[in-house]
Amino acid sequence: MFVDELTPIVKELAGQPVAFLGGLFSGLFRLNLSEDPVKTWLDQQAGESDSGASSSPSQNGKNSGPQTISIE
Asked: Exposure string (b/e) for 19-35, b if CB count within 10 Å is 16 or more?
């Protein structure tokens, strides 16, 4: 019974251990990922891992990032 509840957690830990432990760490220490020391570190890490993909202005005129929509 208790093992069935832990199965999804163990699968995530085995599938992506670094991401899982990073999320667990940030949750335990209540780190806000959008505040400054963590955000700049995450941006630097993303920049190093995406060495081949750089943001270029030739994206067919589309802005990167979320778009706002209004639903009536």
From this structure: ebeeeeeeeeeeeeeee
Say if CB 38 and CB 46 are below 8 A apart: no
CB within 8 A of 32, min separation 6: which ones? 38
What are 28-48's pLDDT values in tens digits?
Answer: 888 777 777 777 877 887 776
Using CA atoms, how far apart are residues 72 and 45, in angstroms rounded to an integer?
40
CB 17 within 8 A of CB 10: no
Q: Token digits for 34? A: 């959008």
- Length of the chain in terms of residues written: 72
Dump pLDDT digits (tens) for 46-66: 776 554 444 444 555 566 778
User: What's the distance, CA 19 to chain centroid?
Assistant: 8
